């Protein structure tokens, strides 16, 4: 704000600086009180041995350096192992949930965007409905659905498949697949200890059966939300471009991959980023399904931070885990931004872009070119 | 200079105006919040939960000088309305004598709400302190060690005093206790042709009756796959997790291995199945649904069965003895008071009232807990002969380990037990437990 105000200060509007401060004051106060100060406090707590008694600053809490971080990252022991298992679980959760929910959301959005679809309003509402329902309520419903004698197993039974005891089954799905292939015991090259005190065999376990139920839950609840974002993106694509593609002889598949998907890239970035952040912070479902049960296979860093703080009263460790989680999310978001960047540099892409631009220009000519014609696509 | 001061004044005024506007705005826009900054006294609208909280904190801050006519808050982990109402009635009775009103708040998540209260510098004046969190709280200096001052300090069971002793100091008064017993479905028992003589008194007999009671649709025995149950077998075999002096982990012992292998043998025989395998959240539910004929649970099962499965006929007997004799776990809560609390003396007086034999028996009647003093427990055993086994168990009960930092180790042990049902290696589990336990003990003793 200052940088904007300062150059003017000597000119005609020289007295406006204080007003600038005055008008931004509410925002500064609110953000400072509820955002900046708590974050700084949490940073301090993560470097201290605060036990939750008395104020974290000025009380008995002492600076302990990076000890809290070392406990979960480098020192062999239960704290590090728990953190490693939590990271593994959450990694698989993210790897499965983010692509699936994005694909499902995009698929649903394309379907409900079709003009020929009858009762579009109904489907849009139906698909969006899980998003506005409390995640707690949905989790409780899922607990019943995936119970040992629940609906899911009932259906499986009807298909002559003996369903697992979903929320009580700690076996990793990759381990199950491997056991079908005859790998029942730990192969010696995987028995060694991998990162964070978790053996390589445990790292490749895949999500547990219980976790897959939670993955299904996440896909079910969030696909609707992201469908809405994709729908908005789809409706921003001008009718003229689609018609041009049609004239150029593109089939529905070609149209989707050459027109729709590239034009949805900004939306895709938003959806992937939001999905990534939300999945790394998963907490509600974990809390409700028993805090990591069965056998810690649904433990996540967010829940671990909670239990370290509130149950073990190791607030420093809890804060440290939160900041590591924050770091993971930031790094992955940057990575993903890099992955989805506009590849101006690459020659092949430049050629392709030139081709596309040409095609676009041709299309504009053939359809009469007016932006007005393709205006209000969809309702 | 002059303009500078001028602007400062304007800024200050503006800030004040903004704050006032923000507060006023709340009141006018959101009518659901009854307290506004400028309106009448908040006491008139204390019917919502939020308003009540505000009231009590104001009371604490304002009434530090005069004890009379103050108010206190009590946070309890309630098993239901029966318990909440009984506790409220008791504190009201105390309030009439002392002139202090106590607001009883039933927590949704006691551990979380306590942690929040303490870290926010505003803990409840008195609260339920569970056995498993006690050592952690005491080690971190959260608790006021008041228990020796009580007139009935010596009347409590020794096992309960031990549970709430940290570093040689008896901290807080146990409010009641529960032990584990063997709960038997009497219909299934008779159906299997068993009589009173067959009631198991040792491990072999337990295995035999469990097998006799097992049918296609019913497991003979069930209990949660966790330290709080398996640990009983370890103790019965003569094992332990921590040495007497509390410095050495003793988890990796032949006795503990024997216990785990015995449990494993029951699983292999098909007579022991865990609640999750039976589609139940806990053993009591499996017992109610009659998918388990015997379970190892505490007196809380009475309330659960009466509410949800009133048709199930059952009786409770003491747990069978192991190779090294009888043993069971005791679980208990105490009345916690925050360290350095301003209402300390009042709270201690309230505890004195609540732990009197008379009051404890009133609680027993209301929601089925067993009194923590030997004299009251004896009366209880006469009044409720069906629970006599639970009371008797306390003669040889031990408290599950709970030193500061133990919770994580036990959670890990419980997690490793889940693989145990499907044929995990008992020795590996104990080796891991031993290493984790020793590390946690060293950390706890160093801190």
Topology:
The complex is a heterodimer of chains A (379) and B (447).
Chain A: H1 2-5, H2 17-46, H3 67-73, H4 78-112, H5 120-132, H6 135-145, H7 151-158, H8 173-180, H9 200-203, H10 209-236, H11 239-247, H12 252-263, H13 265-280, H14 284-288, H15 301-311, H16 315-339, H17 347-366
Helix pairs in contact in A: 2-16, 3-16, 4-10, 4-13, 5-10, 6-10, 10-13, 11-17, 13-16, 15-16
Chain B: H1 2-29, H2 49-62, E1 71-76, H3 81-98, E2 101-106, H4 110-119, E3 126-130, H5 131-139, H6 158-163, E4 165-166, E5 169-170, E6 174-179, E7 181-185, H7 186-191, H8 203-213, E8 219-222, H9 227-236, H10 254-269, H11 283-288, E9 292-297, H12 300-308, E10 314-317, E11 328-336, H13 344-354, H14 357-367, H15 374-383, H16 388-393, E12 397-398, H17 406-418, H18 426-446
Parallel strand pairs in B: 1-2, 1-3, 8-9, 11-12
Antiparallel strand pairs in B: 3-11, 4-5, 6-11, 7-9, 7-10
**Uncertain stretches of chain B:** 12-67
Rg of chain A, rounded, reads: 26 Å
The averaged pLDDT of chain B comes out at: 82
- State the CATH architecture of the domain at 77-299 and 342-361 in chain A: Orthogonal Bundle
Give the averaged pLDDT of chain A, no decimals: 84
Structure characterization notes:
The complex is a heterodimer of chains A (379) and B (447). Chain A has helices at residues 2-5, 17-46, 67-73, 78-112, 120-132, 135-145, 151-158, 173-180, 200-203, 209-236, 239-247, 252-263, 265-280, 284-288, 301-311, 315-339, 347-366. Chain A is mainly alpha-helical and 379 residues long. Chain A has a domain at 77-299 and 342-361: Orthogonal Bundle (MetI-like fold), CATH 1.10.3720. The model of chain A is unreliable at 363-379 (pLDDT under 50). Chain B has 447 residues and is α/β, with parallel strands linked by helices. Chain B folds into two domains: 70-178 and 331-387, Periplasmic binding protein-like II (D-Maltodextrin-Binding Protein, domain 2, 3-Layer(aba) Sandwich); 179-330 and 399-446, Periplasmic binding protein-like II (D-Maltodextrin-Binding Protein, domain 2), CATH 3.40.190.10. Chain B contains 18 helices and twelve strands. Chain B has helices spanning 2-29, 49-62, 81-98, 110-119, 131-139, 158-163, 186-191, 203-213, 227-236, 254-269, 283-288, 300-308, 344-354, 357-367, 374-383, 388-393, 406-418, 426-446; strands at residues 71-76, 101-106, 126-130, 165-166, 169-170, 174-179, 181-185, 219-222, 292-297, 314-317, 328-336, 397-398. In chain B, the strands form three sheets. In chain B, strands 1, 2, 3, 6, 11 and 12 form a six-stranded mixed sheet that branches. Chain B is globular, with a radius of gyration of 26 Å. Residues 12-67 of chain B have low confidence and may be disordered. The A-B interface holds A 18, 21-22, 25-26, 51-56, 77-79, 81-82, 147-149, 165, 167-168, 170, 292-296, 309-313, 315 and B 7, 10-11, 14-15, 18, 111-112, 115-116, 118-119, 121, 133, 136-137, 140-142, 276-279, 339, 405, 407-409, 411-412, 415-416, 418-419, 436, 439-440.
